[in-house]
Amino acid sequence: MKRTPRRVLYHLGALLVVVLFVLPLYWMLMASLRQPGQPPPRTIEWLPNPAVWANYAAIFELAPLATALVNSVLVVLVAVPLTILTASGAGFAMARLNGRLQRGTVLLSIVLLMIPAVALWLPRLVLYRYLGLLDTLAALILPALMGSSPFFVLLFYWTFRRISPELFAAATLDGAGNLALWWRIGLPLARPTMLVVGVLSAMLYWGDFVSPLLYIRSESRYTLPVGVVVLRQMDITNWPLLMAAATLLSIPAVVLFLLVQHWFWFAGRFSESADATDVLG
Amino acid sequence: MKHLVLAPQRTLLLLLAPYLIGAVGLFVLPGVLTLALAFTAYDGLAPPTWRGLQNFADLSIDPIFPTAVQNTVLFVIIGVPLRLLVMLGLALLFERERRGVRLYRSAIYMPTIIPDVAYALIWVWIYNPLYGPLNLLLGAAGLPAPAWLVQEDTALLALVGMLLFQIGEGFVVLLVGLHNIPAAYYDIARVDGGNRWQLFRHITLPLLLPWLVLLAIRDMIVLAQQTFVIVYLTTGGGPYYATTTLPLLAYEQVFDGLRFGHGAAIMLLTFLALGAVLLVGFGLVRWLQRDSR
Q: Yes or no: is domain A62-280 CATH 1.10.3720.10?
């Protein structure tokens, strides 16, 4: 039996790689449980003794993280459903449009993806000031009205394009209009893509630091990433508290990902017939 | 749904409208505005005044600008190939469905989902010269322990190092790419007596090449542009401008210096450079695909 030792060797190697990728998160968690104010460790500490869970309460007292947390949740709760709605609608329309319009919109989306984000910050600031959106949470949510990212629209476009045209043709004969085709046939078949776009957009809005940095002034409208940076400015060397804040910011993302990981890999399989030509449209 | 019966194309345009309006309002117009501001002097208060090419002339004698160009180019030239190598290696390692492999894949994706602010903080801690876990580990092993982010000659490399773990998206894309290679190709080659290296060299690599080029293009944009937050929060461009990249310089010009024109000129140049690279890249993909069919 030559196979068994090889298999063990494979899993040993794989585990080594996996440990390497999870180690930064593990270190974050462990550093967040150290007693604050203690002299920094001299040797590497794999488990802090004692584990100080109170650090997680202390960060809320030190910085305005509670409001920031509520604001962040609010932004995600509004932006994600909006994103799924607008991105899937646009993707569906692109998949159903005829030749020239379709190629035009796909090309437009790819060009939009190339525009450097930095180039958009300043004019958007001017635009939001003009619209009276500065210093409101609406400024953070606004991109959700257009699908949040051309990438999400393209994901839906690729998904809908794979649905067999006969299915739509049959429903059209039954008198269904395009809106009904999108809502009743397209979306139910695109559930894995909805899930992936939902998760990706949730993480986009949850982790967004640049938009609040540019468009938000009042402390009462800070989101969690800004709150964490404020905490850092208050006490830049208090590593236990900073790592507790970083953990607080990371945990929802990690949990969300773990919840949907099965679907995540499934969506990879879903796009089975994809090749690089698809990406180019 | 009687009341919703519209001409078919018109309903489609209705579905498309929010996206198109947003695309124009939030992408195209702002992009054009930045383009225009690159030729003006503007401080955000008084109306912009025309300066022609003066902003570009100013940049050419600004000592920090060439440093920022050099840092950005170095960042991309070192970062992109290394990141692609990690993506490819891991995709090959975790390609086949077997027990536990989904768990492994999820673990690889983990650093990618951490929000930028948290990710930057984690690594400032890990790279801490005195009591960060990395240097404690290196010290225990008797290895040299540099000051990483606060040392001029290691700061940029340290930034590249921490970004080697955030490769989840490319990793997934390559898994899909590998998955799409028909198993029959390998079977035939094995019958002909090809060994593993030959299979990789003559089947996997050529078929994966278009994907790799696409990922390389995307990664250039990511490293040249979207790493702003991570650089801003870890080194802030220091020490002594050792990690000042173009987006960071543009941000400082606009939001710290209120020189909107200068910032816009930097963005315009970055955009043109990236655009040129992208055109070459897309051309390459098309050519590779024609070749493989």
A: yes
